[in-house]
Specification:
Two copies of one chain form a homodimer. By secondary structure, chain A is an alpha+beta fold. Chain A is built from six helices and five strands; from the N terminus they run ααααββββαβα. Chain A has two domains: 96 residues, Arc Repressor Mutant, subunit A, CATH 1.10.10.10; 50 residues, Ferric-uptake regulator, C-terminal dimerisarion domain (Dna Ligase, domain 1, 2-Layer Sandwich), CATH 3.30.1490. The structure holds a DNA duplex.
Chain lengths: 154, 154
DNA sequence: GTGGATGCAAAGAATTTGCAACCAA
DNA sequence: TTGGTTGCAAATTCTTTGCATCCAC
């Protein structure tokens, strides 16, 4: 299997993710590296199916994508995001600042929001006795291009 | 079909939801009323399957539950919430304050957080040109009971 | 009476699993 | 060499759809 995408083998983010894989006791296989490169290259949440579309030409099965992503999520290399319709996307998080998204409910474009006013609330949750606290925050709306020409319903 | 749950027909929240149904041009059927009562009675997000388990004895089909919930969501009677594993829950929102949840990733217990520091950010999103802006924020963690006896990993 | 809603069954998506072959360590 | 991984196929689970019947209005 040849390796797709423009991310090089010595890419620091890739190296870091590979290190996490190894530390977790996993093997660094070609499908995993290929999927990691796709995740790193796409600087936004991506669908399982989209990942598969880019690796299947290299003989990587859909089941393998599911299994790899599940492992990445467990290790903390990716995190799961949600579309308002309930479908899941996955985003590479290693070495990236914590942030949130604005998702257009019309064209599904994803933008980042760098401000996070929520971190403080995690302490509140911690104080309620919760451990391993995390949060997910997504904004949904209709982006400018999509609402152009349409009546503003809000 | 007899009507389940402890919610009475003259319950104000039920009345309000029924009004929204009618205003949206939908009919007030027995399955819909039964599902609404279950949603109102359960003061937390609930799974489609759980709803079905409580109405199927009254002859309400799973497909009907899906169709009703989809209609309720469109009208704004319920909203979709997410579990960290990607599954969807639905919560009755009519007449209830905007709030968020703490979900135990272990026992899946759901608690409410009444503070919402996020509303202000919606303006920011609006200023970026987005319309019909909404957001979803969920906290995940391991609750006190679940982590008791286990080492604190965080 | 009439069109929207339902039950049933079947189709379609999304995700998981079993297992022999494979390959990273 | 050897056990973790993969590809393939099949099984599950989740969700949607078609259609005749039903019932809210």
């Amino acid at each position: 299997m040849s390796i797709p995408e423009e991310i090089r083998d010595d890419d620091p983010l890739l190296q870091q993710a590979v290190g996490m894989l190894k530390k977790a006791g996993h093997r660094v296989t070609q499908p995993r590296v290929a999927i990691l490169k796709i995740l790193i290259h796409k600087k936004a949440p991506i669908k399982i199916e989209d990942i598969h579309n880019r690796v299947k030409k290299h003989n990587c099965d859909l089941a393998t994508v599911y299994r790899c992503i599940a492992a990445f999520e467990r290790i903390g290399i990716v995190r799961r995001c949600f579309f308002p319709d309930g479908s899941s996307l996955f985003e590479f998080v290693v070495g990236r600042e914590h942030h949130h998204h604005i998702i257009c409910t019309c064209c599904q474009k994803v933008e980042n929001i760098d401000v996070c006013v929520v971190d403080g609330l995690e302490r509140l949750v911690h104080n309620r006795g919760y451990r391993n606290v995390s949060h997910m925050l997504e904004f949904f709306g209709v982006c400018e291009e999509c609402s152009r020409g349409k009546p503003d319903e809000n």
